[in-house]
Structures
1.
Amino acid sequence: MKTIHIKNVHEIQKNIPLLQKKLKVGLKIIDHQISITGKEENIYDAERVLDALNADFSIDNALLLIDPEYLFEVVNIKNFTRRSNLEDVRARLVGTKGKTKKLMERLSDCFIKLRGNTVYIIGPAEDMRDTMTAVERLIRGSAQGKVYG
C-alpha cells in the first residue's frame, strides 16, 4: 500500500471508477490523502498518474503514463537560473498568448504545464530529451526562435 498527498481531491474523486479500472489498483481518499493498493507495478503507474493529476493535467493526458513509453518529468525553474524575477522566466516559457508553450507541445508531442516555479511535462520518451532541453534553454535565456526554430 502507498499513500500520497493530493491537491485536487474533487477531480480525482469523480474519476475514481475510471482510474481504478485503468490502473488496476484500489484507491481510497481520506481528506487530501489517497491510499493505493494493488500489485507493485500497478501502484507505480498509479503514482505517476496521480502526480500528473496533481500537476493539473487532464485525466486523458495523465493516463498516457500507463504506457511505459511515456515519461513524466518535473523541472524546477530555480535549478536553471539565478534570476530573481522568475515571473519573466515563466513568461518566456509561456510566450505571448501561450504561443511558445503551444508550439513546443505541437513540435514535440508532449504536454506541458507550468505551475508556480515548476514545469511539468508528459510525453513520449523519444521526444522528452528535446523538450527538456528546449525548456531548460528558455529558462536560461536563449531566444525562443533559437530553441525551436
2.
Amino acid sequence: MMKTSRPRRKPTGSRSAPPEARGPEPLVRVTNRQRRHPVDVAGLERLGCLAARRCLAHPGPGKQLLAELAEVDVTLVSDRVIARVHAEFSGVPGATDVITFQHGELVISVETAHRVAGEEGELFVRELLRYLTHGLLHLHGHLDAEPAQRRVMWRVQEAILRRVWREGCTD
C-alpha cells in the first residue's frame, strides 16, 4: 500500500493476461460504492484508461506491475470506509485520499477528493483523476516514501494529469 497523491498531505484485484489478449494498457474499471457525491463513472473510466496509457511511458524505480495487469479495479468510497481500509492494511488511523494495492486495486475517497477540490479551487473530477493517476503510478513502480521520491512522482503525476485532461476533454 502506498501514500498520498498530494505531497503536502500526510497519508494494490486484477488478473494478468497475455499481451496478445489485450491492449497496450490495462482496462480501468470504476465501481462507485458511496452515495454522497455523484460521479460520472463511465467518464472517469475513460480518463483512467488514458491515464494508464500515459503512466506506462513513465516507469518508476520500484516494481512495475501496471504493464502486466489486464485490469485495474478502482473503488470509490466514503471517508469512513477508506479510514477503515487504511487502518486495517497500514495500521494508520484516519482517512486518506487513495490506497493502492499491488494486485491492481485502487481505493479512492470521494469525500476527500470533493473536500480537497474545494480547498484547492480544483474541479472535483480532476481531483479524482489525480488520485487515480497517483495510484496507477504506484503500480508502475513510483515511490513516495522520501521527499525526493515525492517530488519526482508529483512532477510525473501532474504532467500526466495535464495531458490526460487535454486529451479527455477534446474527444
